[in-house]
Structure to design on (629 residues):
């Protein structure tokens, strides 16, 4: 009896970890954008949902698996994010928070209702061939789709890390995030770097959407939930910290899965919001963030 | 004979005569409006007054004291649920229940405010704290049987008018919300002209400097959130008895918190007329786009137009419509 329980607990934790990696990738986009230009992307969940719909359309109409359409979606999101930053968001950098909030709220309303207008309110999912496949490791069972999505998320996060540590543009972006004035003084084109950053953040969330659609079906109404979820994850992990976003994703993924097992599934986000309140009060820099200077 | 400055005089203060005439005309028009308007337009006007009122309440915390709350649905929901629950379970009428409702919301505001301000959360971090409390409460109400759980709480709809229990048609609710909106306007004016109001503006502009010159920052912020929460709870009570049903999914919804913030931001943050102008603009746009959406019959098209309108307003009038309008029309009020 107890070993049965332990096994199902371990199973839930595994499932949570795998989903959590995709959550982490989503939150990474939010964290990168905030960390560099101090803009909170209130349209983040909406962007996620757009990514999910694009992957669903690719599968439904072109027969392309979301894992294969992912690079195209990420590229599209990069350019859309770049253009969005250049045209709409750029003038709002450094403006009062409520103005940024209203701007991105308007973007969020446009995105989610465009999805609603195009795809309708019904839930849309993809049925992959590997839907019911699984891998076994001792007594643990890994869903194939979940495992693939998680591995892809980790690979993308690794690429992102490489970009920020090994490329010139990536280093420049970090420099601009560290010291805006200094970056201007040494002649970096900060406006272009900001647009690039927003593009990278958007590409993350677009890719996360393409992965998420393989795990759960999409409706327009998920958007608000994902925005909140991304906030919870980055605050718990540490706003602006890359490791924090990934770790926060894992933590929330596991806590949701375990809460769904032990308590009623509907109580799972109560735990997340409780955790958010505690972290905000006791460790506002996040569990994995560096202390503010 | 000389007079000390009387309260009324202080309230009117340096307002331009044409502003007072505008207000008097507005009040008279609103008082007689139900005699002229049909059922549809009355319901639209009720919506305008509701958003003007909650906008005014939210504006105290954000527009005056500079603290961004994105969780004001917490106070609407609590106010509504407490008053409706007392009426539903024990037959305690809203005129008595409202005191409990307001006390509950004020207490919630005190908790959110004390935690947020004591731990010096500012800007987005404070906003997220307010969201977290609102969402947490929503989920708690989802599982609370006394409040009807996720299935909701329903008040019996009577045909007759019973002012003692706030049961009646839209006309009754129109005058109640009109009284609330007018009262909130006067209260906000009085607050702005008071020492407390000046302290709030100092905190909004630069909290550290205010602290340095001796403004009791924590206490002033606490007063702001408690007043704001209490006023918002009144709207919640009104809401519950007007619509006769309450669901956690809508009463505490994130979307409700957001719609409360829109009228004052669109109208002009920190101004007295901002929430009113914003409520007129937003409700007007909403109704126009509803008609347009029905004509086009595409799901979501109404919201797309609405989003576009918000985008245009925030891009071209980031400080709000009223300050610009006031200048065009020659009314003196600027963002204090």
């Amino acid at each position: 009896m107890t070993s049965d329980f332990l096994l199902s607990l371990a199973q839930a934790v595994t499932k949570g970890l795998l989903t959590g990696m995709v959550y982490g990738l989503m939150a990474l986009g939010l964290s990168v954008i905030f960390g560099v230009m101090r803009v909170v992307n209130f349209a983040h969940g909406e962007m996620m949902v757009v990514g999910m719909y694009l992957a669903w359309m690719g599968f439904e109409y072109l027969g392309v698996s979301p894992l294969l359409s992912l690079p195209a979606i990420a590229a599209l999101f990069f350019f859309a994010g770049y253009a969005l930053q250049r045209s709409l968001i750029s003038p709002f950098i450094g403006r009062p928070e409520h103005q940024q909030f209203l701007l991105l709220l308007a973007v969020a309303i446009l995105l989610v209702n465009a999805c609603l207008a195009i795809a309708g309110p019904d839930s849309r999912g993809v049925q992959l061939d590997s839907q019911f496949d699984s891998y076994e490791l001792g007594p643990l069972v890994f869903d194939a789709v979940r495992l693939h999505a998680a591995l892809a998320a980790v690979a993308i996060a690794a690429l992102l890390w490489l970009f920020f540590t090994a490329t010139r543009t990536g280093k420049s972006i970090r420099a601009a995030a560290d010291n805006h004035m200094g970056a201007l003084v040494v002649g970096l084109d900060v406006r272009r770097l900001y647009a690039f950053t927003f593009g990278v953040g958007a590409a993350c969330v677009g890719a996360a959407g393409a992965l998420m659609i393989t795990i759960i079906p999409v409706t327009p109404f998920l958007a608000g939930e994902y925005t909140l979820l991304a906030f919870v994850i980055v605050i718990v992990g540490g706003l602006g910290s890359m490791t924090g976003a990934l770790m926060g994703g894992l933590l929330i993924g596991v806590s949701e899965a375990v809460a769904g097992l032990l308590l009623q599934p509907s109580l799972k986000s109560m735990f997340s919001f409780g955790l958010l309140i505690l972290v905000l009060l006791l460790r506002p820099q996040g569990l994995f963030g560096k202390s503010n200077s | 004979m000389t007079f000390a400055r009387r309260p009324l005089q202080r309230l009117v203060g340096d307002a331009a005569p044409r502003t007072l005439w505008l207000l008097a005309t507005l009040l008279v028009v609103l008082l007689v409006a139900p005699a002229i308007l049909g059922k549809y337009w009355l319901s639209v006007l009720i919506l305008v007054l509701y958003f003007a009122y909650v906008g005014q309440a939210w504006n105290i915390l954000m527009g005056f004291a500079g603290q961004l709350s994105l969780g004001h649905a917490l106070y609407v929901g609590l106010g509504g649920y407490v008053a409706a629950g007392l009426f539903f379970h024990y037959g305690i009428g809203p005129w008595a229940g409202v005191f409990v409702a307001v006390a509950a919301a004020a207490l919630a505001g005190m908790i959110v405010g004390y935690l947020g301000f004591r731990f010096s959360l500012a800007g987005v971090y404070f906003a997220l704290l307010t969201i977290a409390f609102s969402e947490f409460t929503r989920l708690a109400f989802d599982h609370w049987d006394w409040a009807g759980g996720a299935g909701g709480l329903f008040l019996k709809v009577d045909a007759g008018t019973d002012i003692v229990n706030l049961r009646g048609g839209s006309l009754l609710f129109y005058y109640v919300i009109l009284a609330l909106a007018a009262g909130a306007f006067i209260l906000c004016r009085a607050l702005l002209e008071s020492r407390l109001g000046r302290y709030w503006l100092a905190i909004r502009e630069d909290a550290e400097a205010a602290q340095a010159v001796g403004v009791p920052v924590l206490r002033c912020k606490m007063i702001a959130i408690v007043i704001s929460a209490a006023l918002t709870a009144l709207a919640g009570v009104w809401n519950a008895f007007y619509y006769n049903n309450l669901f956690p999914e809508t009463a505490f919804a994130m979307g409700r918190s957001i719609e409360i913030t829109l009228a004052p931001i669109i109208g002009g943050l920190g101004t007295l007329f901002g929430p009113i102008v914003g409520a007129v603009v937003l409700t007007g746009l909403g109704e126009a786009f509803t008609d347009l959406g029905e004509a086009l019959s595409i799901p979501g098209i109404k919201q797309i137009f609405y989003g576009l309108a918000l985008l245009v307003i925030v891009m071209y009038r980031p400080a709000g419509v009223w300050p610009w309008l006031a200048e065009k029309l020659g009314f003196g009020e600027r963002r204090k």
